[in-house]
Amino acid sequence: MTSTGDQPGGGAAGSAAASEGRERAEARRSAGEQGLLFGPADGVPEPPRDDLGYRGPTACAAAGITYRQLDYWARTGLVEPTIRPASGSGTQRLYSFRDILLLKVIKRLLDAGVSLQQIRTAVNHLRERGTSDLTEVTLMSDGASVYECTSPDEVIDLLQGGQGVFGIALGRVSREVEGTLAELPGERIDGMTTGDHPGDELALRRQARMTG
């Protein structure tokens, strides 16, 4: 941080530094309370199988959106199903875990009052990241703009500067989606479903992580 003009004296400079330190400490405390600080210890989930998809109703349930929203966002290119796009009458669209993660993030941003135009810009940036990279991102917003943070210091800087009115830690959202999908049916590209035991795929991944 830089400033212009003459410093009135060491005492004033020390007072300003102390004030800035208190502001930063308050910003760090706020970020911690909101669960916006992240790191390797957070236990970010591994991405699921690339060949496992979820139908529209399941994607809606996991993301907390309506089917009308899902359909509109697919038709306008905001979030399209990447496992199996709709290619004709009777074709069932299949959404990936990553697709559903983005859908849930969009819903959170909309609920916070962020415009769809700003959301589209943010999603375009997020789309360039892999699933693992996504879970290391925290989105901050002042209600008008969306900022992408990849370190705790960036989150604290925005909170301290008043630009981070609220935030969304994608790693936490990812774990929420994983937990929800564990109770919902999925479908493999080969046509087999996990409907009889909807949690099998995710449960096996969690067990594999626990056993090393």
TrEMBL record:
Q: Recorded GO terms, molecular function?
A: DNA binding; DNA-binding transcription factor activity
Keywords, ordered alphabetically? DNA-binding
Q: Name one Pfam family in it.
A: MerR_1
> What are the Basic and acidic residues biased-composition ranges?
20-31
Is the keyword DNA-binding in the record? yes
Annotated CDD domains:
HTH_GlnR-like (cd01105)
Span of domain HTH merR-type: 62-125
Q: What is this protein called?
A: DNA-binding transcriptional MerR regulator
Task: State the PROSITE patterns in the record.
Answer: HTH_MERR_2 (PS50937)
Report residue spans for region: Disordered.
1-52
